[in-house]
Amino acid sequence: MRILIKGGRVIDPANAVDDALDLLIEDGKIIQLDRNVAGDILSSTGKGKSSKDSKSSMNGIGPIDRVMDATGLVVCPGLIDMHAHLRQPGREDKETIASGTMAAARGGFTAVCCMPNTDPVNDTRSVTEFMLDTAKREGAVHVYPIGAITKGMKGEELAEIGELFEAGCVAISDDGRPVMNAELMRRAMEYAAMFDLPVIQHSEDLYLTGRGVVHEGFVSTELGLRGIPSVSEAAMVARDILLAELTGARLHIAHVSAAESVRLIREAKAREVRVSCEATPHHIALTEEAVRGFSTNVKMNPPLRSESDRQALIEGLRDGTIDVIATDHAPHTVQEKEREFDLAPFGVIGLETALAVTLTTMVHTGALSLSEAIAKLSCGPARLLKLPKGQIAEGADADLTIFDPNRDWTVEPSAFVSKSRNTPFSGWRLKGGTVATLVAGKVVWEA
């Protein structure tokens, strides 16, 4: 299968490319990237124009099965979400690998990393292999499993980290549950360092969190909801930075939400500690003010925080302290979310809105350039997880996202591909949307 993508603005932050270029794809690889590939093909065949069903050939090397006109669109490396919950095995009522990866494709993601809090927990080779086999059969995009740090994610005994690495896990994490035992976390880091495997921490001191459900501040006091102080996150970030400094391990802080955390990570990076972090689109776009309507679709952990925290995240993205934008896609059923605020589970979905929310809140406001935003969603996670993805170059895999940066649309949860509807952005007008997603040269989603 040979596909020609012509006339698009190709942005590849990994190779500092931002130019009007054509791409020729064959057998899942990019075989030519140049300014006038389309013109060469058309002149060699004597055709005046190309079309979706074109069967032209290029200097006798073979037919062009399809021409995709990307005029006015951006072509970038396939987006990579390094933090998602696909729920399979165990909670297929919330999401499956099939539905979750199709939601990813609709959102422009060509790869997702799935967290281990499944049932059973991904703490053994057999569960990792089940995920990979299911993804190979049913998945629309690449799936990279993340194994558990501790057995059953109970924080009591280390999982078989070497076995998980050999089975195909790209990182380890007890996401959703912090590893509270500092000695156990130290040993996990030492063990993971042997494989140069990132340790991803859900940073939260459970004693400081208590039974909190929203950010501790003026809004929580006014609404009468139990608060979670930002120091609950920052205290654990500080502890783990010290452990990473001691062990030399690669520490990644998931879903940073507090200004104190950003400051601690910035200072650690200045000391050359091997620490990285991510922020989510919902923490970038929303604050604790969104909780005033008591919608459980704005209940997540860490919670939406203050405007000063949100501004700290934006500054962290701008200066490179925050390496990645990740969704923390956490599907729940309608029945679970339609409960009292205190009883509803934490978590929101984000695969189908992440790109548009990032463009709307970061790029169109001037906070980030288009290239900087794409880097946070593609080559950034590829670099941290050592994935052979995240760039557009001759010989590279044809994992590509084509999007319209100026497309206006309204978020309608009923139109989602995901099995769940718990988005905090229902009814939002967003600017920017996916036009097509290609995985290994195959169009897996198209508007």
Kindly summarize this structure in a few lines.
31% of the residues lie in helices and 22% in strands.
Radius of gyration: 22 Å
Strands, total number:
18
**SS summary, helix count:** 15
What global shape is seen?
Answer: globular
CATH superfamily of the largest domain: Metal-dependent hydrolases
Provide the number of structural domains: 2
The description of the largest β-sheet is:
8 strands, mixed
Question: What would CATH call the architecture of the largest domain?
Answer: Alpha-Beta Barrel
Round the mean pLDDT to the nearest integer and report it: 95
The CATH first-level class of the largest domain comes to Alpha Beta
Folded structure, characterized:
The protein is of the alpha/beta class and 447 residues long. The chain folds into 2 domains: 2-72, no CATH class; 78-385, TIM Barrel, CATH 3.20.20.140. The chain is 31% helix and 22% strand. It is globular. The model is unreliable at 46-54 and 56-60 (pLDDT under 50).
